[in-house]
Design brief:
By secondary structure, this protein is α/β, with parallel strands linked by helices. 51% of the residues lie in helices and 18% in strands. It has 12 helices and 7 strands. Strands 3-2-1-4-5-7-6 form a 7-stranded mixed beta sheet, with helices on both faces. It starts with a helix and ends with a strand. Keywords: Catecholamine metabolism, Endoplasmic reticulum, Hearing, Membrane, Methyltransferase, Neurotransmitter degradation, S-adenosyl-L-methionine, Transferase, Transmembrane. This is catechol O-methyltransferase. It catalyses: a catechol + S-adenosyl-L-methionine = a guaiacol + S-adenosyl-L-homocysteine + H(+). InterPro entries: SAM-dependent_MTases_sf (IPR029063), SAM_O-MeTrfase (IPR002935).
Length: 258
Amino acid sequence: MSPAIALAFLPLVVTLLVRYRHYFRLLVRTVLLRSLRDCLSGLRIEERAFSYVLTHALPGDPGHILTTLDHWSSHCEYLSHMGPVKGQILMRLVEEKAPACVLELGTYCGYSTLLIARVLPPGSRLLTVERDPRTAAVAEKLIRLAGFDERTVELIVGSSEEVIPRLRAQHQLSRADLVLLAHRPRYYLRDLQLLEAHALLPAGATVLADHVLFPGAPRFLQYAKSCGRYRCRLHHTGLLDFPAIKDGIAQLTYAGPG
């Protein structure tokens, strides 16, 4: 390419960099820098985060562990976890609904699991599902470090598509009063329909779905709004540490099979 042609494209490149600078920063932090650190350390980001928690957080104190993860994500490496703003929304809704049983799809490092567990009513139960065994191992250690035993929080390793059909028989889950979808947005619709098909959602159940605006779950939202079985509300937020990138948590209330 000649210098003259390159120069002609320069204003366009500058415009794109300025307009999408938040997305470029996110790309650098979540892909480029993370991949480099993974290679150099031989550890995944959630494993590095847990090492930090072990040396800086108070065992048995879920609130302090959550704060420690937030600090590490803001000052060390971007963890891509739920964060305190969405976390307050989640905890408020769990306290309001007072569910007897909660199902979480997408444990990741265990951050949102701790948010739910710390405000569960006495005697309630949380089942959390994580596809990746290595990530699940970190989450398991974090959950137990926070002081929650298996009677309160049970972690299931496997894909949501395989786990949901056997929840009733293998994990004694007959109904989920509250469901958090926090795995991959492209699977939200599939898994919601699986929960319906296996009659795991009682009338009045609450389904919360994270990241419905970024990266987005348009088919899931369209289905929830058009099928006639849900009342829908969207809690608008920004992406953690990138408030200019708009995101949100969808709150669905199930009216029953109709």
